[in-house]
Structure formats: C-alpha cells, structure tokens
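Incident log, support desk, overnight shift.

02:14 A customer reports that sequence design results differ from what the structure should imply. Their input is reproduced verbatim below. On-call engineer (initials T.W.) acknowledged and began investigating.
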C-alpha cells in the first residue's frame, strides 16, 4: 500500500444514484468522498434529451442534468473526484478501496453506485449514430420518433416491452430477431405478435445502420436465405440487455446470475454490513434516472443510520 487516506463515507460511481447519495450524505455531515469512475454522469451522458425527470418542465439534455447533480452535491460539501475504483477489500473494517491502482482509501462505509452499461451489437455505424437516432432506451427516446417508422433489435422481455411501447407512438415498429424464436416470456411474445404495427423479422441479423448524420435505414441479413435487404427507418433501438458494472465485487458481494448486486428488500443493504448498493447496479427492473436517484437517497440514509449506530457503541 502506497498512501492511505481515511474517509467516513465513500461513494463509488457518479450517475443519478451516486450524486443523490452524495447530496444526502453531505447534508448529513458524513463528509462523503465520491469517485466518478470511467463515465462521469453515467448512462445519462449518452442520452440526448431527458423529458421524464420531474422538475424540468421543458426537458433537459442528459449531460447537462448530470452537471447540475454534480454541482448540487459539491455545493452541499461532497468531495467529488476523478478516478476509478480498481480493487476492494471488504473483509475487515474499515473497508479498503484501491483507486486507479495506486492509492488506497479506508472507509467506514461504502455506497456502490457503479450503474450498468447497455449491451451493443458492436457495429461501427451504431456507435457513430449513437444519440442521432440510435438508442438503447426506447422509453427515454421513443417520443422523439412519434408517427415515424423505427426498428428495434432484441428477443427478450425488455425488447418486447420496448417494441410495445414504441408501437403506441410510431407508425411501424420493425423488430429484428436473430433466431426463429424469441427468448421472451410467452405472454410478452403473444402481445407483440398480435400488435398490428409491429413487424417481426425472424432469423435476422443487423449488418449496418445507414445514414450520414442521422439514421435513415438499416441493412439486415436473413441468415436462413442469405438475403440482404434495407429497411427505411428513422431510429434504431438496441434492446439486447444491460450489463451491471459489478465485476469489481465478484466473490465479495452477493449478486444474481446476471451480476446485479442483491440488496435486502426495502433497503440498500448488501450482504456486508456497512456496504450499500443503489441505482442500476442493483436495479434491473426500472432502470430510470428518477428511480436511481431515489435509491441513492436511501443508500445515504442507510449509511447515516449505520454510522450513527457505530458511533453510539
């Protein structure tokens, strides 16, 4: 260990959950230190306009909203730093967290808000047009393509839910499924298949998203017939799942088979006393900025109670 710093409350991650935890922890005088991780602001920094967060009647750009959250946390006294947690040791208290493989922090309590990352197909065009018609969140961005044709790729429950959501807004939803069946539950499949403006393409791979500065069509391949075709659409939604950013806590904290951290119902407590998890790293159901912020608040209150009980002993 090179240098070690002691902190009362350490927050790892900087999306709506991490920043909200920092606001509450700072107001409770826990003197929180927050490390932003590799994507300061989290998934919201790759969304364009956010219209469903309460308190912004005219909507706000995702990156700007995260700047607002960060400034509010700083004004409350949170110590916000650039850097990434690279190792943890939760076997003894104080907990130890390594930052950027070079310095160690000793923390009386830890709040994990490392979030999740959308899975992508890995196409160059998909990344180039991300935020310009390519999106991994239909609920966030579907509204901007009202009364237009859109495409969605995926075969699970989330893809079905998002296709149904889009079908209420868009004229036609072209749904690309790689195999000849879906992974989604029977109920969800049935709903999709009986929705008139959802057109399902089986055995279909996406080759490329076409368009200069915005999406204008998608090139697909039928992997049974080897036929290529081009489908004109204004947006391309990727719904092939999310990956929680939890690998740092493998064999340390309890997680489900997909890697989401398990918290006790009605709280943010993990299986280690004094370590709390909030936001998308522990929520695979709602995954919204407002629900992440809510659990960030819960985590700070849980940490405050935990630290208060420690001190009274």
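02:41 Re-run completed on a clean worker. Output:
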């Amino acid at each position: 260990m090179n240098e070690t710093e002691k902190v009362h409350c350490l927050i790892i991650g900087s999306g709506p959950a991490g920043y909200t935890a920092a606001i509450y922890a700072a107001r409770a005088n826990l003197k929180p230190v927050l490390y932003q991780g590799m994507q300061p602001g989290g998934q919201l920094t790759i969304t364009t306009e956010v219209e469903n967060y309460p308190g912004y009647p005219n909507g706000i750009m995702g990156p700007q909203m995260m700047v607002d959250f960060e400034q509010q946390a700083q004004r409350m006294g949170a110590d916000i730093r650039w850097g990434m947690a690279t190792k943890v040791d939760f076997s003894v208290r104080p907990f130890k967290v390594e930052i950027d493989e070079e310095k160690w922090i000793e923390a009386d309590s830890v709040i994990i808000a490392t979030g999740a990352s959308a899975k992508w197909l890995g196409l160059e065009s998909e990344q180039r047009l991300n935020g310009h018609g390519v999106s991994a969140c239909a609920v966030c961005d579907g509204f901007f393509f009202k009364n237009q044709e859109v495409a969605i790729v995926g075969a699970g429950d989330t893809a079905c839910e998002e296709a149904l959501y889009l079908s209420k807004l868009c004229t036609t939803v072209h749904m690309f499924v790689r195999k000849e069946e879906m992974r989604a539950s029977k109920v969800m499949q049935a709903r999709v298949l009986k929705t008139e403006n959802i057109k399902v393409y089986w055995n279909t791979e996406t080759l490329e998203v076409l368009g200069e500065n915005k999406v204008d069509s998608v090139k697909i391949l039928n992997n049974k017939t080897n036929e290529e075709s081009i489908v004109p659409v204004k947006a391309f939604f990727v719904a092939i799942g999310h990956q929680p950013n939890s690998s740092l806590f493998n064999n340390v904290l309890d997680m489900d088979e997909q890697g989401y951290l398990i918290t006790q119902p009605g709280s943010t407590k993990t299986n280690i006393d004094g370590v709390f998890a909030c936001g998308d790293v522990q929520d695979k159901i709602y995954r919204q900025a407002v629900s992440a912020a809510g659990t960030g608040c819960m985590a700070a209150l849980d940490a405050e109670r935990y630290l208060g009980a420690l001190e009274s002993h």
